[in-house]
């Protein structure tokens, strides 16, 4: 990439990193901590990019405020009475002194964290341990449900992934490498409705046929996952809680 292919716009105190790329459309994204990035087609002038950014300035301000507020919320503890979403259902956190081995389990409408008395305290050790327990439970939930969903989606789309991995992601619900057929999924999908997992898996499988987000890609999505727009709206409106090791996030989307 040449040096002049990337530059920074400063609008009303907001810095926007602009990159000229081989894309058809302008892509504007607010990332972790309120960082704003915009990719534009190669022939887009600086003036045109600035005009586009100004036209979306209200949206940028709103999304930056959400991202920054979210970063602050991520610093809070998983304490008794808080709500944690599992497969789209809010679960009330309950702490219980019980035994010597910390554990986390779903019990009806509750998410019960059990273990030695220190787990219920306010020390950093307890706070970190509770977050890890929730992260592990979500990872287990995704691992249990994924094989069936993946098999069904592969049959529907007519494409198979060469490998599928799960991890905590900062800004995306999923991603893929069309050249190798590898797909990566955000563990935080276990927070959202099951239809969201189906949508993201289908999204990434469709990318194996159509790498870009052009009309052909969305035709595939409409054909193989008719309810994808509702699921994507849920994902956009409910960013991942990110209990995992990279606990910073801005609203994300499937790749």
TrEMBL record:
Keywords: Hydrolase, Metalloprotease, Protease
InterPro entries membership: UTP_pyrophosphatase-like, YgjP-like_metallopeptidase
Gene3D superfamilies linked: Metalloproteases ('zincins'), catalytic domain
Source domain of life: Bacteria
GO MF term set: metallopeptidase activity
One Pfam short name: YgjP-like
CDD domains, alphabetized: M48_yhfN_like
Boundaries of every YgjP-like metallopeptidase domain copy: 24-237
EC number: 3.4.-.-
Name the UniProt record assigns to this protein: SprT family zinc-dependent metalloprotease
Source species: Olsenella absiana
